[in-house]
Amino acid sequence: MENRIEPAAAERRAAHAVSIVTIDRMPRQPTLAAQVVRALADRGISIDGLVGGWRNQREQLVITVPVEEAALVVELAGTIAARFGVGPVTVDSSWTELVIDVPRGRSSSAIVAELYEQLAERNVEARAVTATSNEVLCVVRPEAGDELRRSMTLRETKRRARS
Q1: What is the DSSP-derived secondary structure letter of residue 15?
Q2: Most buried of 14, 44, 90, 151 (most Cβ within 10 A)?
């Protein structure tokens, strides 16, 4: 059996525009993050990614959302951040999320390794890379997204042909 995405699934997997919403100067406790994510959930907003990072004794919460939801996410996050005296809340809507399915019989770590090799060869900045056993997500600038997807597909096709 060949490892490829069916056409209908491939359409859903096309790269799509995302916004990165960042809340700076957060305390090292989950209370604020819980309130922000709860507010988004209550409004029916799905997040594509959520990363918290520690720097200088404060956390930076980074939320990846569909670009069309960014204004509402900034508004909700800003309201909650103001209550806690943290922030600022910033948004950068110039990113694309690329989703790569992990073919049956391959590990996600192999796909991530190939992805990082491609990023390095092309000198492409990745804002985030996450992986599960089924898929790898990579947030890059739009101009890099399509070329990177074609390159990863070509590598997988060549790999299968050698098998």
Answers
A1: -
A2: 151
Q: How far apart are CA 94 and CA 82, in angstroms?
A: 25
How high is the pLDDT of residue 11? 35
Strand ranges inside the chain, DSSP E: 16-26, 49-55, 58-66, 89-101, 126-131, 135-140
Q: Is the peptide bond before 103 cis (omega within 30 degrees of 0)?
A: no
Residue 12 DSSP SS3: helix
151 or 88, which is more confident: 88
Order of strands, edge to edge, in the sheet holding 49-55? Answer: 49-55, 58-66, 16-26, 89-101, 135-140, 126-131
pTM given for the model: 0.71
Q: What is the CA radius of gyration of the chain?
A: 18
**Which residues lie across from 29 on neighbouring strands?**
none
